[in-house]
Structure formats: structure tokens, C-alpha cells
């Protein structure tokens, strides 16, 4: 098993990392003024929260753990959104699953990620894994979803529909579960009325540094889940609420396409409407659950707990 600890190298006094400095607000404004202002308005939009459920279910969200075994808070459901290992080796993958099985949560759900290559049956072999190793895995009581769904029953009796996928837009052809960016991979895959959607990739433009999938975002508009948990974009750990209103549409347009004054005024219009005529339609809570992230994965994050 690979025993290298990426965090241990920072304890060596002879090693110095030169970490790129984040651009200042002024630098970001000069680079793309209309996008900068649009995102500022979006940050201060009015959010109308849905009524709390009669039978609340606590969901603990993690992703991109690699070498980490963070302390997991108590909850009803534990979700891992992929990249359980750094290299897909069978030994390390099983060690991670054993750690997950030790957790007390009555329901545990996992999807794979780009680095979990041993799960991708289209792949041959790699360092520490070979074709067919996925058949040797002991999942224990973990539910593994690969472009598939299940219905879970929480301890309070509430039933939730869950669907999960390990796939994401291509970044490196040697990694697992990837598709071309121009491929409408999600067409007719995600069923209607899903309560919890788990994907390794984020939707484009939301907690993703624009590496997410536009077609997945389109699916959210067509069929909004109550909760969407994902990983991959390691520097964007956090949560966001989608309201599927005029403001969100205008901001997504200015992120992904033109960034001129006419598009910015659509954002302004949507911002005013969000306060004067707030949307009362479906809501989706987005969770980027990456535990590791940043330069050399040196930042450590905590699991995110949500109530749905």
C-alpha cells in the first residue's frame, strides 16, 4: 500500500512551498468587471427557504477524502461523493471502505470518482489495481451507486429516493468515469422526483471553478432534486441554494457565455425581481463536500451536515 502522506511533507523544515497568492478583489474586478459585479449581486440575493420537513433526516456529506479519515459527526445518512483513493489501488480502496463501515450511520452511500479507477470496468489496470479488482471489494453495508438509484428508509421511517453517478467531464484520459464535455451524458439518466442526487462532478457554474458539467446543470433545471451532493472541485467546499429564478438564469449565462453590459443588466433585473417577487418554486441545496483541496491538497475541511 502506498504509505506516502501528503501532509507529512509540510513538517519538513527543509521544504518550502510557494503557494500562488489569490487575486485581490480589485484584480478580479479589472479582469472581468461585469462578472465580478454579477457574482456580488448573486451573493446578496433574497433566498426563500422551504418549510422544514415533518420528519427531518440528517445527511453527512464527504468527498475527495484520498488519504484522509476525518472525524464524522453523527447522522442518519453518510454520503461519499467519490475519489475515495488517490490512485485507485485495491488495498487502499478497501481500507477506506472499512473505515466507512466502522461509522455508526445506519445508511451509507458511495459513488466513485475519477481516481477510483478500479471501479471503472472499461479500464485495464494501473498502479495497485488490475481489471476485475472491483469484484474483490467487500462493500459491507455500504450502498454503491453507479448511474443507478435506490430508495432508503431513514430511522424515523421517512423514505427518500437517491440516485448517484461517478461520471464527470473529461480532464485526463487515464482517469476513470469520464465523458467528453460535448456529450449530453445525463440525457434521460436521472429519474424524476429524486430527493438526493449524488454525482462526482458539480453542475457548471456552482461551487466548481467552472470545471463542472453544463448538461448536468440543465438537468437540475428540468428536474430539481431536494439535495445535490458532489465533489471534484476541491477548492470550492461549501453549500449553495438554487432557486431556479431569473437571477440564477442570468448569472449562469454571464458565467458561461458573454460578459458584457447587456448581460449584466439582466442580472440586475433578476436581482430586483428576487427581492420584489421572490420565487416560490423548487429549491435545491448544493453541497460541495470535498474534504481535501487547494494547492497540493494541503487544506483540510470538515464534513458538511445538512437536514432535509
From TrEMBL:
Residues 73-211 form the Calcineurin-like phosphoesterase domain. GO terms for molecular function: hydrolase activity. Pfam families: Metallophos. InterPro entries: Calcineurin-like_PHP, Metallo-depent_PP-like, UPF0046_metallophosphoest. CDD domains: MPP_239FB. This is Calcineurin-like phosphoesterase domain-containing protein.
Amino acid at each position: 500500500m502506498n504509505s506516502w502522506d501528503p501532509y507529512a511533507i509540510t513538517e519538513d523544515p527543509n521544504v518550502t512551498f510557494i503557494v500562488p497568492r489569490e487575486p485581490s478583489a480589485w484584480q478580479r474586478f479589472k479582469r472581468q468587471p461585469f462578472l465580478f459585479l454579477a457574482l456580488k449581486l448573486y451573493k446578496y440575493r433574497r433566498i426563500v427557504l422551504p418549510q422544514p420537513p415533518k420528519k427531518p433526516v440528517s445527511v453527512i456529506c464527504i468527498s475527495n477524502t484520498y488519504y484522509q479519515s476525518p472525524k464524522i459527526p453523527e447522522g442518519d445518512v453518510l454520503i461519499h461523493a467519490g475519489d475515495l483513493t488517490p490512485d485507485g489501488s485495491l488495498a487502499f480502496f478497501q481500507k477506506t471502505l472499512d473505515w466507512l463501515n466502522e461509522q455508526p450511520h445506519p445508511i451509507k452511500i458511495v459513488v466513485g470518482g475519477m481516481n477510483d479507477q478500479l471501479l471503472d470496468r472499461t479500464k485495464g489496470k494501473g498502479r495497485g489495481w488490475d481489471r476485475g479488482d472491483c469484484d474483490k471489494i467487500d462493500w459491507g453495508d455500504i450502498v454503491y451507486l453507479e448511474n443507478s438509484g435506490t430508495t432508503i428508509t431513514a430511522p424515523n421511517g421517512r423514505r427518500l429516493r437517491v440516485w448517484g453517478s461517478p461520471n464527470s467531464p473529461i480532464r485526463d484520459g487515464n482517469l476513470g468515469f469520464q465523458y467528453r464535455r460535448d456529450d449530453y451524458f445525463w440525457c434521460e439518466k436521472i429519474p424524476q422526483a429524486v430527493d438526493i442526487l449524488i454525482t462526482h462532478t458539480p453542475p457548471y457554474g456552482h461551487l466548481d471553478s467552472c470545471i463542472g458539467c453544463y448538461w448536468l446543470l440543465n438537468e437540475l433545471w428540468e428536474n430539481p432534486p431536494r439535495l445535490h451532493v458532489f465533489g471534484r472541485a476541491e477548492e470550492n467546499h461549501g453549500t449553495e441554494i438554487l432557486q431556479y429564478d431569473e437571477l440564477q438564469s442570468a448569472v449562469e449565462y454571464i458565467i458561461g457565455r458573454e460578459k458584457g453590459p447587456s448581460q449584466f443588466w439582466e442580472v440586475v433585473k433578476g436581482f430586483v425581481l428576487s427581492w420584489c417577487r421572490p420565487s416560490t418554486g423548487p429549491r435545491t441545496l448544493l453541497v460541495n463536500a470535498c474534504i481535501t483541496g487547494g494547492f497540493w491538497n494541503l487544506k483540510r475541511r470538515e464534513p458538511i451536515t445538512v437536514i432535509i
